[in-house]
């Protein structure tokens, strides 16, 4: 399973990349706003900086909601850098835009996926990725991981090439559950990625190893 980081924060992107396990980055308009990045030029500059830090796909989302606007914005985003994947919402206009981009050889990530049916439409239109939102479904007492599992099964059964990019990951256990159901990618906050490292037996085991080593080598 590939690991993407779900942020527009450059320090966090650098930290995850330095761990040596990062395969890509996803952003959305809210994450860009959180970093205070506004205006077309600044956004473009920021996406380019991310592409320089990480050797992998970088999702950049269109703001337009009409077909023509999505095409114009998506073409501009895609022209920025070969690593850019144009992120498009799962609406009727969005699905049409994904079909257009796919015919132009431009890779897309269909976002705001909450049903298997939406994922099917995106895959049929030629999306490179679909992003089912795990945490937001869990938030309303629905089962986000079950949605990921059902999309994975449907894509395998019908041999779609579209990758399942589990999004809205809130914690480390979500990552483990994504592994269990065969997601192709999980895009996660840095805290959830770091959580994979943690185990008290690792900490106590290392402490004991170092104490034993010191006792014999330093006579303590
Ligand atoms: C990423 O592609 C999504 O936009 C993001 O994971 C949404 O996460 P949230 O539900 O925590 O806002």
UniProtKB/TrEMBL annotation:
What the entry lists under InterPro entries is as follows: Aldolase_TIM (IPR013785), TAL/FSA (IPR001585), Transaldolase_3B (IPR022999), Transaldolase_3B/F6P_aldolase (IPR004731), Transaldolase_AS (IPR018225), TSA/FSA_arc/bac (IPR033919)
Taxonomy, top ranks, is: Bacteria, Pseudomonadati, Bacteroidota, Bacteroidia, Bacteroidales
Q: One GO molecular function term?
A: aldehyde-lyase activity
Q: Known catalysed reaction(s)? A: D-sedoheptulose 7-phosphate + D-glyceraldehyde 3-phosphate = D-erythrose 4-phosphate + beta-D-fructose 6-phosphate
Q: Keyword Transferase on this protein?
A: yes
Record has Transferase as a keyword: yes
Please name the source species: Porphyromonas loveana
The similarity comment for this entry is: Belongs to the transaldolase family. Type 3B subfamily.
Question: EC top class, in one word?
Answer: transferase
Identify the EC number(s): 2.2.1.2
SUPFAM superfamilies named among the record's database cross-references = Aldolase
Q: In which pathway does it act?
A: Carbohydrate degradation; pentose phosphate pathway; D-glyceraldehyde 3-phosphate and beta-D-fructose 6-phosphate from D-ribose 5-phosphate and D-xylulose 5-phosphate (non-oxidative stage): step 2/3
The source's domain of life comes to: Bacteria
Membrane spanning segments where? none
Could you tell me what this protein does?
Transaldolase is important for the balance of metabolites in the pentose-phosphate pathway.
Q: Which UniProt keywords apply?
A: Cytoplasm, Pentose shunt, Schiff base, Transferase
Active-site residues annotated for this sequence: 87
Protein name stated in the entry: Probable transaldolase
* An annotated GO BP: carbohydrate metabolic process
> Which locations, inside or outside the cell, does it occupy?
Cytoplasm
Question: Which Pfam family would be a valid example here?
Answer: TAL_FSA
What Gene Ontology cellular-component terms does the record carry?
cytoplasm
């Amino acid at each position: 399973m590939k690991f993407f980081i779900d942020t527009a924060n450059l320090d966090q992107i650098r930290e995850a990349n330095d761990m040596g396990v990062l395969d890509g980055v996803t952003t959305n308009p809210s994450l860009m706003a959180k970093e205070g990045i506004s205006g077309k030029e600044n956004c473009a500059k920021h996406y380019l900086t991310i592409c320089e830090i990480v050797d992998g796909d970088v999702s950049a989302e269109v703001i337009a909601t009409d077909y023509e606007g999505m095409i114009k914005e998506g073409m501009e985003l895609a022209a920025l850098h070969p690593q850019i994947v144009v992120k498009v919402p799962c609406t009727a206009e969005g699905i049409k835009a994904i079909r257009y981009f796919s015919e132009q050889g431009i890779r897309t990530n269909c976002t705001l996926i909450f049903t298997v049916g939406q994922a099917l439409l995106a895959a049929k239109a030629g999306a490179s990725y679909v992003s089912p939102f795990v945490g937001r479904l869990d938030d309303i007492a629905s089962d986000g991981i079950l949605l990921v599992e059902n999309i994975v099964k449907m894509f395998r059964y019908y041999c779609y090439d579209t990758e399942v990019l589990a999004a809205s990951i809130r914690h480390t256990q979500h990552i483990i559950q994504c592994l269990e159901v065969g997601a192709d990618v999980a895009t996660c906050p840095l805290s959830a990625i770091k959580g994979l490292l943690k185990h008290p037996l690792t900490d106590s085991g290392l402490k004991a190893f170092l104490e034993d080593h010191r006792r014999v080598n330093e006579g303590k």
